[in-house]
Design brief:
Rossmann fold; Transcription Regulator spoIIAA; 2 domains; alpha/beta; five-stranded mixed β-sheet; 9 helices; CheY-like_superfamily
Length: 238
């Protein structure tokens, strides 16, 4: 039996496009034109993943997100934003949205967002197991997996303390493209970046790089597109 995904959007062509892509990715799409209709479908089917437009008449996407999280905190919610709606996307992340994707919808962006949610659900509930420290010749790399929240902070801090004790070159905080970060996680990262000004941040998805820049976090730590790029700078300098 394929996994169901509920999509809520007030534009029928957008729903049709989502349904087409989701079926191609092996999901069963459920669609609703209003937030109220979407909640009725959610109550009836309990899908593990919901995608909702953030701007809709009547019940908007933030209200839908809050209602679903109240009913089922474990359900993943991806919000759909228009170009330039970063403030609304940040509000959604603060309400524990798993991710956001921009209109116009792109197949690759949707697939990446779905993969992030799949990894987040698959990750162990033990945050400690989702963080690893790797020593390289010219750097120590701390890699986070799954979903970064306020509860991740003590585990990230412990990992960074171990990394600082080992570091002979760069200290790198590595986020694979599948990682998502909610509002609490962003606050935790800001605190850690201020505490460890030598950190380099690597491989955040394009959406979360935009969030970092909007919040000014890129002024606390440089952003790099790959581990090779971040670590290679030290190799060249040394």
């Amino acid at each position: 039996m394929t996994e169901a995904v509920l999509v809520i959007d007030d534009e029928q062509p957008t729903l049709d496009m989502f349904a087409l892509f989701l079926e191609a990715f092996g999901y069963t799409p459920l669609t609703a034109l209003t937030g109220e209709e979407g909640l009725r479908l959610f109550d009836a089917h309990q899908p593990p993943l919901v995608m909702t437009d953030i701007k809709m008449p009547g019940m908007d996407g933030i209200e839908v997100l809050r209602a679903i999280k109240k009913r089922s905190p474990a359900t993943e919610v991806i919000v759909i934003t228009g170009h330039g709606d970063m403030e609304l996307a940040l509000r959604a992340l603060e309400c524990d949205a798993a991710d956001f994707i921009n209109k116009p919808l792109g197949r690759e962006a949707l697939e990446t967002s779905l993969e992030r949610c799949k990894e987040r659900r698959a990750c162990s509930r033990e945050q400690e197991q989702n963080i690893e420290v790797q020593s390289l010749e010219s750097a120590v790399v701390v890699t986070a997996h799954g979903h970064v929240t306020s509860e991740s902070e003590p585990f990230l801090r412990q990992a960074l303390e171990r990394a600082a004790a080992k570091a002979r070159g760069a200290m790198v905080l590595h986020f694979p493209a599948s990682v998502s970060v909610n509002g609490g996680g962003l606050a935790a990262l800001e605190s850690l970046l201020r505490e460890y000004p030598q950190l380099r941040v690597v491989c955040l998805s394009e959406n979360f790089q935009e969030v970092f820049r909007r919040l000014g976090l890129h002024e606390l730590a440089p952003l790099y597109g790959s581990l090779e790029e971040a670590v290679g700078i030290d190799i060249e300098e040394n």
